[in-house]
Amino acid sequence: MFYRIIYLFLLVATGNGIAAQNITWSTVAPGVWKGIVGKPEAYDLLKAADARPAAALKNMSEQEFPFAKADISGTVTDGKTYLRFPLEKEEQLFGFGLNFQTVHQRGKILQLHMDHYGGKDNGRTHAPVPFYVSSKGYGVFVNAARYINVYAGSGVRKDSRNPPEEKDRNTDKSWSSRPYSDAVELLVPAPGTEVYVFAGPTALDAVRRYNLLNGGGTLPPRWGLGFTQRVRSLFTAAEVKQEADSFSVKGYPLDFIGLEPGWQSRSYPGTFEWDKGRYPDPPAFVKEMLDKRIRLNLWINPYVSKSASFYKAITPFTGSHTVWTGEVPDFTIPEARNIFFGQLKKDQVDIGVSGYKIDEVDGYDYYLWPDVATFPSGLSGEQMRQTYGVLAMKYSVNLFRDKNQRTYGLVRASNAGANSYPYVLYNDYYHHEDFITALINSGYIGVLWTPEVRASKTAEEWLRRFQTVIFSPMAMINAWSSGTKPWSYPEVAAPIKELALLRMRMMPYWYSEFAKYHFEGTPVFRGMSLEPGYQVNANSSVKNNLEDNPYLEAVTKEVKDQYMAGEYLLVAPLFTGQTSRKVVLPKGRWYDFYTGAFAGDGEVITVTPGLDKIPVYVKDGGVIPMMPPLLHAPKAGEKVDLEIRVYGEKTGNYRLYDDDGETFDYEKGRYDWRTIRIEKDSKGKLKGSIEPSHKKDVQSYGKVTFQFMTK
Ligand code: GAL
Fold first, then answer.
1. Does pTM surpass 0.85?
2. Which residue segments constitute the domains of the chain, with CATH numbers given?
3. Which residues pair with 687 in a beta bridge?
4. Which of 411, 351, 357, 409 is nearest to 387 (CA)?
5. How close is the Cα of 299 to the center of ligand 1, in Å?
6. Atom 5, ligand 1: which residue's CA is nearest?
7. Looking at residue 533, what is its pLDDT?
8. How far is the CA of 659 from the centre of ligand 1 (A)?
9. I need a labelling partner for 569 at 20 to 30 A (CA). Which of 183, 199, 531, 588 fits?
10. How many CB atoms lie within 10 A of CB 485?
11. Is the CB of residue 467 below 6 angstroms from any atom belonging to ligand 1?
12. Per residue in 299-319, pLDDT tens?
């Protein structure tokens, strides 16, 4: 009764049935604030991921709160939380989940909902991360494990500070069906939520703060950055060995092989134990592969068959619904995860398996549990759906952590907070251009994405796809259905081999750049808008004018087919059928990666690279440390020589990262950063030097030579 009176009082007080709430703000770290609206739920994205801030977060610069706090509102009505953030005229927005067709998100209406990507950027995706970053240099994150509705600058409130002008469509050609909106509005179906605001000053700084809050990016083992082949379903141990041997005989690099359905005695649903026919002696098989320096990654989805040895034990801890008739373990319950991951440990990890591909934890409504499903922990179907991939990643990583061995695997569902987990997203969609747009978008939201290669209609397509997977977080052929090999298209086998070897040669660069992702939060693969000096219309007189029509800007001018790879590289892929393309070079001098020749400065160039080249450009002063084209990543303690390529005319420094490449000892300080200095001698000629290693037990690099690429 008492509460009813209060409620009625609130209704009267606000006049419109909306209970106005104050947002309570607190400072979490320099330039990071947390706001509480209403009563946040006990289970949220950061709790699901167990995300803990990385050490470097506290070293970020102090910044002002990026808005007037009074311009942000949070109210709870109808059991849901309504959030509003201001939006200025010239702002563009990025993020809001793993989108595949658009980079600019201003004007979008989305529901962030875990799902297999269905061909539309509507929020249903493999990583529906509720984080966005603005071109004005700040970020916003809503920490709720819910399906969140997003109106990214579409709604127009009566009390808008910058209302659109009323126009008469009968007479005024400038009438717009989408009048100007000055707010990002979100609806969280929960009676409260946490929100985080991240300062810049640049958009990249805001992304870095977001990544660091969530533990920093992942640091893969060195071998994870080599090449991986996923073999056809139902392969036998003998066939897998043969596959590995053919890579080595033909001289193609290979660090790990992925086994697809068929390694288990049953699957969909799975037993999580080896099939005795195809794999009669798993320990001997895994050992033999490791002796060949090939690690194994096993496909699973977590749905448990009645034939699984632990089926009876796990049933009390599974959800109300099945997936493909398999039971769904509630990983938030210790018993469920001990039983499930205990099986993986005993049967696979303990004999040397190096990782997993955690499949089908994202959705498709017709096979996943419906929202009406219940789980024994009390979590709802919706909360479980938003976080199931995150839970599976979290507990599988512990299997490897316990052995002090890093892993690097694949997952089909991720979310906020999982930034530091060593998993790369993929899916069944196969649109090459959209795969690249997803790679760009992954960098805004703290996840990794691979544009995996499966099969192709032509040799041209095969080569074009291969070129991009080499410049991605996981260089992979997924031949689970096609049975393809890198050399499957003989016309292009030579350039394919060259590319695979280039991936290996670039390992010191990739490894250092991933270390920067881990320790400093800087995404390795990222969109051009995060690059200083980048302007869409680099050499045209038309300005980026978001004032006239932000939506038009988003759909007509966005660049979604070129991206940054590490500190210095700009990658501009070509797709099947293209022989030339435009590349937008940000301000500053850029050089051709292969020849070192000057390519342009703050301009749009048109290039015709030939089929065997993917255009890659290096920023002035770019330093790319490379190693010999080995067929496997160097082992812990193995030394490799370095060839340090230097591009352009600028002097500068590069920070080369080193550790044992395999264990978690870097978390205890067993790592090294060595400065590579590029200076000018008395005659003005560039010369290079590298600091000696600072740690006796961290020395992966032997002889160092410098290669000045720009003559
Ligand atoms: C799909 C997955 C593929 C492959 C296949 C095996 O769901 O996306 O990559 O693993 O399952 O059945």
1. yes
2. 16-163+173-213 (2.60.40.1760), 623-708 (no CATH)
3. 679
4. 411
5. 8
6. 480
7. 87
8. 34
9. 199
10. 18
11. no
12. 999 999 999 999 999 999 999
